[in-house]
Amino acid sequence: MILSEFSLIDDYIATSATMRPDVCVGIGDDCAVLEVPTGKSLAVSMDTLVAGRHFIDGADAVNLGHKALAVNLSDLAAMGAEPAWATLSLTMPEADVLWLQAFMQGFLALADRFGVQLVGGDTTRGPLSITVQIHGFVDPCQMMRRDGAQPGDLIYVTGSLGDAGLALRLQQAGKLDIVHHQQLLQRLDSPAPRITEGMQLASIATAAIDLSDGLVGDLGHIVRQSNCGATIELQRLPCSTAVKAAIAESNEWSLPLSSGDDYELCFTVPAEKQQQLQQLAAILDCPLTRIGVIEQKSGIRCVTAEGAGIDVKSGYDHFR
Q1: Are strands 82-92 and 299-303 parallel, antiparallel or unpaired?
Q2: Is 52 exposed, middle or buried (0-12, 13-18, 19+ CB in 10 A)?
Q3: What domains are there in the chain, each with its CATH number?
Q4: For the chain, which ranges sit under pLDDT 70?
Q5: Model confidence pTM above 0.85
Q6: For residue range 18-52, what is the model confidence (pLDDT) as tens digits?
């Protein structure tokens, strides 16, 4: 059976369980028509995943659907925004129904978890690539940006760092054992966007960013746009047992500092709000770890417990 573009959309894509009252017109017309709540601003972000660049050939389609949406939700989390709508553009080599069903299973499960309605997009034929645009609502007086950090602010991260990078390193070396490295693989293939944490932090943090390209590179965006610098204390970095073992074996810190794909939040908080942050941490199902301090001097310095500095490469860059 030859499937048309429109039957693919009707039968496999336009099947979201989430139906939001602020969607006046969704999939099926020339445009989606959407309502932004009074007093809120619209936060919009877009990411593209390309076969052979962002994921390997034969990658699990369910996980890929999850990750395609998760990396966009992570951008909303960094702004402290509430998710609302998404659009999806799929370029596929052929009309592979089984692949599409699995992809949409992962995509829509995460969308339904966060109350996101798929409201439009496009499908076309070509090399496999996936583009998602996410929309959310944010209080214009409390949104987190990259340019608000001040000298003396403390630097925090959510969760742990380096697991996805270690999974990728093992995968590329042919040493990834799915049985023994399941937790690492989950961090790489099915990241958990920190939406709840971001919305709660919006009233406390002075700046924030999601960690997609590595801690040093992404924190670098904050310090450059805030016209300041930072010191990271290596012994404070939250790492899993597996990452700590890899650091000890290699005697270098690239996994938590520059490997990327963590999709945790890095944020800055005034020292006087530490107690408020600790109270928040007690109710969140996610560790919040202080890893350093914002300083007047530009640049990022990474220091050991003994105070010795180390050189670390910056984060991932598509064109470097």
Answers
A1: unpaired
A2: exposed
A3: 5-138 (3.30.1330.10), 154-310 (3.90.650.10)
A4: 1-17, 179-180, 313-320
A5: yes
A6: 889 999 998 888 999 999 999 999 999 999 999 88
